[in-house]
Amino acid sequence: MTPLPVTPAHQLADRPPDKDWLVTGLWSQEAVGIIGGEPKCCKSFLALDLAVAVAGGAPCLRRFGVPKPGRVLLYAAEDAAHIVRRRIEGIGAAAGLSIFDLDIQVITAPSLRLDLDADRASLEETIARLEPRLLILDPFVRLHRIDENISGEVAPLLAFLRQLQRRHGLAVILVHHARKNASSMRAGQGLRGSSEFHAWGDSNLYLRRDGDALTLTVEHRAASAMPAIRLELTERADALALEVVDGRPQPAQGAEARSIDERIVAALAEAGAPQPFADLRALCRVRTTTLYQRLAAMAAAGRIVKSTDGYRLATG
Using an 8 Å Cβ cutoff, are 66 and 57 in contact? Predict the structure, then answer.
Protein backbone atom coordinates (compact mmCIF):
# COMPACT_ATOMS: atom_id res chain seq x y z
CA MET A 1 0.00 0.00 0.00
CA THR A 2 1.40 3.41 -1.01
CA PRO A 3 1.68 5.97 1.83
CA LEU A 4 0.15 9.42 1.49
CA PRO A 5 2.49 12.28 0.50
CA VAL A 6 3.47 14.65 3.32
CA THR A 7 5.42 17.93 3.54
CA PRO A 8 6.89 19.63 6.64
CA ALA A 9 4.81 22.65 7.61
CA HIS A 10 7.73 25.05 7.14
CA GLN A 11 8.06 23.93 3.52
CA LEU A 12 4.45 24.63 2.58
CA ALA A 13 4.08 27.29 -0.10
CA ASP A 14 3.78 30.82 1.24
CA ARG A 15 1.39 32.49 -1.20
CA PRO A 16 2.40 36.06 -2.15
CA PRO A 17 0.11 38.84 -0.86
CA ASP A 18 -1.23 39.64 -4.35
CA LYS A 19 -2.46 36.05 -4.64
CA ASP A 20 -4.63 36.17 -1.52
CA TRP A 21 -7.69 37.70 -3.19
CA LEU A 22 -9.62 37.08 -6.35
CA VAL A 23 -11.73 40.14 -5.50
CA THR A 24 -10.22 42.09 -2.63
CA GLY A 25 -12.29 41.76 0.52
CA LEU A 26 -15.11 39.83 -1.17
CA TRP A 27 -13.74 36.56 -2.52
CA SER A 28 -10.52 34.74 -1.67
CA GLN A 29 -8.20 33.44 -4.35
CA GLU A 30 -9.30 29.96 -5.55
CA ALA A 31 -12.09 29.90 -2.97
CA VAL A 32 -15.28 27.90 -3.20
CA GLY A 33 -18.40 29.34 -1.66
CA ILE A 34 -21.98 30.53 -1.74
CA ILE A 35 -23.84 33.65 -2.75
CA GLY A 36 -26.96 33.15 -0.65
CA GLY A 37 -30.21 34.95 0.01
CA GLU A 38 -33.96 34.79 -0.26
CA PRO A 39 -35.63 35.22 -3.67
CA LYS A 40 -35.47 38.69 -5.25
CA CYS A 41 -32.38 39.70 -3.27
CA CYS A 42 -30.28 40.36 -6.40
CA LYS A 43 -28.10 37.25 -5.97
CA SER A 44 -27.70 36.83 -9.73
CA PHE A 45 -26.83 40.53 -10.14
CA LEU A 46 -24.10 40.17 -7.51
CA ALA A 47 -22.77 37.02 -9.19
CA LEU A 48 -22.64 38.80 -12.55
CA ASP A 49 -20.97 41.85 -10.97
CA LEU A 50 -18.23 39.52 -9.74
CA ALA A 51 -18.03 37.98 -13.21
CA VAL A 52 -17.64 41.37 -14.89
CA ALA A 53 -15.04 42.46 -12.33
CA VAL A 54 -12.88 39.35 -12.70
CA ALA A 55 -13.22 39.21 -16.49
CA GLY A 56 -12.66 42.93 -17.04
CA GLY A 57 -10.37 43.91 -14.18
CA ALA A 58 -12.75 46.62 -12.95
CA PRO A 59 -13.58 46.93 -9.24
CA CYS A 60 -16.57 44.83 -8.21
CA LEU A 61 -19.45 47.06 -7.13
CA ARG A 62 -17.15 49.91 -8.24
CA ARG A 63 -15.22 49.47 -4.98
CA PHE A 64 -13.50 46.07 -4.56
CA GLY A 65 -10.42 45.61 -6.73
CA VAL A 66 -9.33 42.60 -8.77
CA PRO A 67 -5.55 42.01 -8.44
CA LYS A 68 -5.34 39.62 -11.39
CA PRO A 69 -8.21 39.48 -13.91
CA GLY A 70 -8.97 36.32 -15.85
CA ARG A 71 -11.54 34.31 -17.74
CA VAL A 72 -14.94 33.53 -16.20
CA LEU A 73 -17.09 30.50 -16.98
CA LEU A 74 -20.78 31.04 -16.26
CA TYR A 75 -23.83 28.79 -16.20
CA ALA A 76 -27.05 30.74 -15.68
CA ALA A 77 -29.75 28.10 -15.50
CA GLU A 78 -32.79 30.30 -14.88
CA ASP A 79 -32.32 33.18 -17.31
CA ALA A 80 -32.65 33.31 -21.09
CA ALA A 81 -29.50 34.14 -23.04
CA HIS A 82 -30.71 37.63 -24.02
CA ILE A 83 -31.41 38.48 -20.37
CA VAL A 84 -27.93 37.34 -19.33
CA ARG A 85 -26.39 39.44 -22.10
CA ARG A 86 -28.43 42.52 -21.19
CA ARG A 87 -27.45 42.25 -17.54
CA ILE A 88 -23.77 41.80 -18.36
CA GLU A 89 -23.90 44.79 -20.72
CA GLY A 90 -25.55 46.94 -18.03
CA ILE A 91 -23.08 45.98 -15.32
CA GLY A 92 -20.23 46.46 -17.78
CA ALA A 93 -21.50 49.93 -18.65
CA ALA A 94 -21.61 50.85 -14.95
CA ALA A 95 -18.00 49.66 -14.69
CA GLY A 96 -16.93 51.52 -17.84
CA LEU A 97 -16.47 48.34 -19.87
CA SER A 98 -17.92 47.06 -23.12
CA ILE A 99 -19.21 43.50 -23.27
CA PHE A 100 -16.53 42.97 -25.94
CA ASP A 101 -13.89 43.69 -23.27
CA LEU A 102 -15.14 40.86 -21.06
CA ASP A 103 -13.83 37.28 -21.27
CA ILE A 104 -17.00 35.69 -19.91
CA GLN A 105 -17.73 32.30 -21.45
CA VAL A 106 -21.39 31.29 -21.02
CA ILE A 107 -22.39 27.62 -20.99
CA THR A 108 -25.43 27.38 -23.25
CA ALA A 109 -26.33 23.72 -22.64
CA PRO A 110 -30.05 23.39 -21.84
CA SER A 111 -29.24 21.54 -18.60
CA LEU A 112 -26.30 20.74 -16.37
CA ARG A 113 -26.66 18.09 -13.66
CA LEU A 114 -23.96 17.75 -11.04
CA ASP A 115 -25.51 14.45 -9.93
CA LEU A 116 -24.86 12.84 -13.35
CA ASP A 117 -21.42 11.45 -14.16
CA ALA A 118 -21.66 12.44 -17.84
CA ASP A 119 -22.45 16.07 -17.02
CA ARG A 120 -19.67 16.23 -14.42
CA ALA A 121 -17.20 14.94 -17.00
CA SER A 122 -18.40 17.49 -19.56
CA LEU A 123 -18.05 20.34 -17.07
CA GLU A 124 -14.54 19.30 -16.10
CA GLU A 125 -13.51 18.94 -19.74
CA THR A 126 -14.81 22.44 -20.43
CA ILE A 127 -12.84 23.82 -17.49
CA ALA A 128 -9.70 22.03 -18.60
CA ARG A 129 -10.04 23.49 -22.10
CA LEU A 130 -10.94 27.08 -21.16
CA GLU A 131 -8.87 27.42 -17.94
CA PRO A 132 -11.13 29.99 -16.21
CA ARG A 133 -10.13 31.75 -13.01
CA LEU A 134 -13.74 31.73 -11.83
CA LEU A 135 -16.68 29.34 -12.30
CA ILE A 136 -20.18 30.61 -11.48
CA LEU A 137 -23.13 28.21 -11.23
CA ASP A 138 -26.51 29.91 -10.78
CA PRO A 139 -28.56 28.55 -9.02
CA PHE A 140 -27.79 25.26 -7.28
CA VAL A 141 -31.42 24.15 -7.24
CA ARG A 142 -31.33 23.77 -11.07
CA LEU A 143 -28.17 21.65 -11.05
CA HIS A 144 -29.45 18.41 -9.57
CA ARG A 145 -32.37 16.21 -8.60
CA ILE A 146 -31.27 15.29 -5.10
CA ASP A 147 -32.79 16.12 -1.74
CA GLU A 148 -30.96 19.25 -0.55
CA ASN A 149 -31.87 18.47 3.06
CA ILE A 150 -29.95 15.17 3.14
CA SER A 151 -26.27 15.66 3.90
CA GLY A 152 -25.29 12.38 2.28
CA GLU A 153 -26.72 13.56 -1.05
CA VAL A 154 -25.45 17.14 -0.92
CA ALA A 155 -21.90 16.38 0.21
CA PRO A 156 -20.78 14.46 -2.93
CA LEU A 157 -21.87 17.31 -5.21
CA LEU A 158 -20.02 19.91 -3.16
CA ALA A 159 -17.01 17.59 -2.96
CA PHE A 160 -16.94 17.40 -6.76
CA LEU A 161 -16.83 21.20 -6.98
CA ARG A 162 -14.04 21.25 -4.40
CA GLN A 163 -12.12 18.75 -6.54
CA LEU A 164 -12.53 21.01 -9.57
CA GLN A 165 -11.15 23.92 -7.56
CA ARG A 166 -8.07 21.95 -6.48
CA ARG A 167 -7.36 20.24 -9.81
CA HIS A 168 -7.73 23.34 -11.95
CA GLY A 169 -6.83 26.18 -9.56
CA LEU A 170 -10.03 28.15 -9.97
CA ALA A 171 -12.58 29.81 -7.70
CA VAL A 172 -16.14 28.46 -7.61
CA ILE A 173 -19.26 30.48 -6.81
CA LEU A 174 -22.53 28.67 -6.20
CA VAL A 175 -25.70 30.77 -6.06
CA HIS A 176 -28.09 29.27 -3.52
CA HIS A 177 -31.38 30.20 -1.91
CA ALA A 178 -31.97 30.91 1.76
CA ARG A 179 -34.90 29.54 3.72
CA LYS A 180 -38.02 31.64 3.81
CA ASN A 181 -38.20 33.89 6.86
CA ALA A 182 -34.53 33.24 7.65
CA SER A 183 -33.85 36.85 8.68
CA SER A 184 -33.66 35.94 12.38
CA MET A 185 -30.91 33.35 11.76
CA ARG A 186 -27.20 33.83 11.27
CA ALA A 187 -26.76 34.31 7.53
CA GLY A 188 -25.00 31.02 6.83
CA GLN A 189 -27.42 29.04 8.93
CA GLY A 190 -30.31 30.45 6.93
CA LEU A 191 -29.24 28.71 3.72
CA ARG A 192 -31.82 26.26 2.45
CA GLY A 193 -31.10 22.57 2.91
CA SER A 194 -28.22 20.77 4.59
CA SER A 195 -25.68 22.48 6.83
CA GLU A 196 -23.07 21.16 4.36
CA PHE A 197 -23.53 24.35 2.31
CA HIS A 198 -22.39 26.67 5.08
CA ALA A 199 -19.50 24.39 6.11
CA TRP A 200 -18.27 24.06 2.52
CA GLY A 201 -17.61 27.70 1.70
CA ASP A 202 -14.21 29.42 1.93
CA SER A 203 -15.84 32.74 1.03
CA ASN A 204 -19.57 33.31 1.36
CA LEU A 205 -21.69 36.35 0.49
CA TYR A 206 -25.19 36.77 1.92
CA LEU A 207 -27.84 39.20 0.74
CA ARG A 208 -30.83 40.21 2.86
CA ARG A 209 -33.71 42.60 2.41
CA ASP A 210 -35.29 44.64 5.18
CA GLY A 211 -38.01 46.59 3.45
CA ASP A 212 -36.28 48.44 0.63
CA ALA A 213 -32.83 48.08 2.22
CA LEU A 214 -30.49 45.44 0.76
CA THR A 215 -27.58 44.35 2.97
CA LEU A 216 -24.49 42.36 1.98
CA THR A 217 -22.72 40.29 4.65
CA VAL A 218 -19.29 38.78 3.93
CA GLU A 219 -17.78 35.67 5.50
CA HIS A 220 -14.34 34.08 4.98
CA ARG A 221 -12.73 30.92 6.29
CA ALA A 222 -9.18 32.29 6.34
CA ALA A 223 -9.58 36.08 6.50
CA SER A 224 -11.37 38.64 8.60
CA ALA A 225 -14.71 39.83 7.28
CA MET A 226 -15.60 43.44 6.60
CA PRO A 227 -18.64 45.06 8.23
CA ALA A 228 -21.94 44.56 6.45
CA ILE A 229 -22.57 47.03 3.64
CA ARG A 230 -25.74 48.38 2.06
CA LEU A 231 -26.41 47.98 -1.64
CA GLU A 232 -29.04 49.19 -4.05
CA LEU A 233 -29.93 48.21 -7.61
CA THR A 234 -29.52 51.42 -9.61
CA GLU A 235 -30.51 52.23 -13.16
CA ARG A 236 -28.64 54.94 -15.05
CA ALA A 237 -29.28 55.30 -18.75
CA ASP A 238 -28.76 51.78 -20.11
CA ALA A 239 -26.86 50.50 -17.04
CA LEU A 240 -28.63 48.47 -14.34
CA ALA A 241 -26.22 47.39 -11.60
CA LEU A 242 -25.73 47.09 -7.86
CA GLU A 243 -23.96 49.93 -6.10
CA VAL A 244 -22.65 50.47 -2.60
CA VAL A 245 -24.87 53.02 -0.85
CA ASP A 246 -22.61 54.15 1.98
CA GLY A 247 -19.62 56.27 1.03
CA ARG A 248 -20.69 56.61 -2.57
CA PRO A 249 -19.06 59.56 -4.40
CA GLN A 250 -21.36 62.57 -4.59
CA PRO A 251 -22.17 64.10 -7.97
CA ALA A 252 -19.70 66.74 -9.06
CA GLN A 253 -21.09 70.25 -8.76
CA GLY A 254 -20.20 73.81 -9.71
CA ALA A 255 -16.58 74.47 -10.61
CA GLU A 256 -15.63 70.80 -10.19
CA ALA A 257 -18.25 69.70 -12.75
CA ARG A 258 -17.13 72.42 -15.20
CA SER A 259 -13.51 71.32 -14.81
CA ILE A 260 -14.37 67.67 -15.53
CA ASP A 261 -16.49 68.66 -18.52
CA GLU A 262 -13.60 70.72 -19.91
CA ARG A 263 -11.26 67.71 -19.56
CA ILE A 264 -13.77 65.51 -21.39
CA VAL A 265 -14.13 68.03 -24.23
CA ALA A 266 -10.35 68.42 -24.52
CA ALA A 267 -9.78 64.64 -24.56
CA LEU A 268 -12.41 64.07 -27.24
CA ALA A 269 -11.17 66.99 -29.34
CA GLU A 270 -7.58 65.76 -29.20
CA ALA A 271 -8.56 62.15 -29.98
CA GLY A 272 -10.53 63.18 -33.05
CA ALA A 273 -12.50 59.93 -32.96
CA PRO A 274 -15.11 58.31 -30.69
CA GLN A 275 -13.61 57.13 -27.41
CA PRO A 276 -14.84 54.08 -25.43
CA PHE A 277 -15.67 54.79 -21.80
CA ALA A 278 -12.61 52.98 -20.43
CA ASP A 279 -10.23 54.94 -22.71
CA LEU A 280 -11.92 58.21 -21.84
CA ARG A 281 -11.66 57.45 -18.14
CA ALA A 282 -7.91 56.89 -18.51
CA LEU A 283 -7.49 60.13 -20.48
CA CYS A 284 -9.51 62.23 -18.03
CA ARG A 285 -8.35 60.52 -14.81
CA VAL A 286 -11.82 60.67 -13.30
CA ARG A 287 -13.65 58.24 -11.02
CA THR A 288 -15.90 55.83 -12.89
CA THR A 289 -19.10 57.02 -11.19
CA THR A 290 -18.24 60.71 -11.62
CA LEU A 291 -17.35 60.29 -15.29
CA TYR A 292 -20.55 58.38 -15.95
CA GLN A 293 -22.59 61.17 -14.32
CA ARG A 294 -20.86 63.93 -16.30
CA LEU A 295 -21.15 62.07 -19.62
CA ALA A 296 -24.85 61.54 -19.02
CA ALA A 297 -25.32 65.24 -18.21
CA MET A 298 -23.31 66.36 -21.23
CA ALA A 299 -25.21 63.99 -23.55
CA ALA A 300 -28.53 65.28 -22.20
CA ALA A 301 -27.35 68.84 -22.88
CA GLY A 302 -26.38 67.93 -26.45
CA ARG A 303 -22.66 68.58 -25.97
CA ILE A 304 -21.56 65.00 -26.69
CA VAL A 305 -23.00 61.99 -28.51
CA LYS A 306 -22.83 58.34 -27.46
CA SER A 307 -22.52 55.74 -30.21
CA THR A 308 -21.58 52.07 -30.47
CA ASP A 309 -17.95 53.19 -30.95
CA GLY A 310 -17.90 55.36 -27.83
CA TYR A 311 -18.34 59.06 -27.05
CA ARG A 312 -17.65 61.95 -29.42
CA LEU A 313 -18.25 65.69 -29.48
CA ALA A 314 -21.56 66.82 -30.92
CA THR A 315 -21.31 68.63 -34.25
CA GLY A 316 -23.17 71.68 -35.43
Answer: yes
